[in-house]
Design goal:
single chain; alpha+beta; five-stranded antiparallel beta sheet; 2 helices; 5 strands
Length: 92
């Protein structure tokens, strides 16, 4: 059974919740602009490692959103082509 270790910790406009399950921890990140929670699917040995991973997750998502926004502006201003946009925005 899952136990929530905290009610959530605010971080850069998101909320990070650390969840305990069978002597391991995971995180859930909530953003008011997105539905549901987001996670990386991993488990961690300590509460602190799960919390730190949640912070890193939010940092990455925030950076990706900023980069996508900048690329969209460049494309809208015709400074890069659609092909260049997709080459630069393909993070996976």
């Amino acid at each position: 059974m899952l136990n929530t270790e905290s009610n959530g910790i605010p971080y850069h406009g998101w909320l990070v919740e650390v969840v305990a399950c069978r002597n391991r921890y995971s995180f859930r990140c909530y953003c008011s602009e997105l539905e549901g929670f987001h996670e990386d699917g991993s488990t961690y040995r300590t509460y602190q490692s799960a919390l730190k991973a949640g912070y890193y997750f939010i940092d990455r998502e925030t950076a990706l959103a900023a980069l996508i926004h900048a690329l969209e502006e460049l494309m809208r201003d015709r400074k890069i082509s659609l092909e260049e946009y997709w080459n630069l925005a393909n993070f996976w």
